Amino acid sequence: MNSATPIKAMILAAGRGNRLRPITDTLPKPLVPLCGKPLIEYHIEKLARSGVEEIIINHAWLGEQIEQTLGDGSRWGVKILYSAEPEGGLETAGGIINALPLLGENPFVLINGDVYCDFDFSDLIAKAQTLAVKEQGQNTDLQLGHLYLVPSPEHNAKGDFGLPEGRAQGPVSEQGDYTFSGLSVLHPQLFADMPVSFIALAPILRQAMQQQSLTASLQTGLWSDIGTLERLQATEALLCPNR
Known about the structure:
By secondary structure, this protein is of the alpha/beta class. Helices cover 29% and strands 26% of the residues. Strands 1, 4, 5, 6, 8, 9, 10, 11 and 12 form a nine-stranded mixed β-sheet that branches. The radius of gyration is 17 Å and the shape is globular.
């Protein structure tokens, strides 16, 4: 990576995956195969190609399977560290807060382990580098994160967040025009002084929006939330129709 600031990534992998049962009764959701490959491996491969050297993965349900399957990350040329959570997990923000000692003080890339996309992850790394440089600058307001949004699919037609005035990149609002892709760049300061507890991420993001310390951009391309058996099958039909 051509930068003095190494960027770490975190993959969220602690969810129970109830809507993917019965597969997830015996297999953690991030290891559910998509076209014969565990879903989480697509993320690891792309992060490695983008220059990320250290990846933190949190887990709760059947977490030992995740560690046994992925190991230390050496097969991809990265270092994987694990952040174990108690049974039931800590929700998204709680899991991040629990992993902050591993993530360090620089902005980091955050990826939901249960999505698939064909986005170029180098843009996420570049955004994290930009946030790190801005933090070191003078007379600049601290930006706490950047979200990647996608056109809303049928199962989330109301959307999550909006881009004011239809701008492709810039300030983000609570108006639900677009769907949060599960990919973001976040600054550890977003979670300053928060305890390790069962805490959701969405309210924290909305508060940052109100403080105008969060931005977003719209991504196009293939994106799928592998949250149900039907969406898993639909994504496989697109990626590997001959299986």
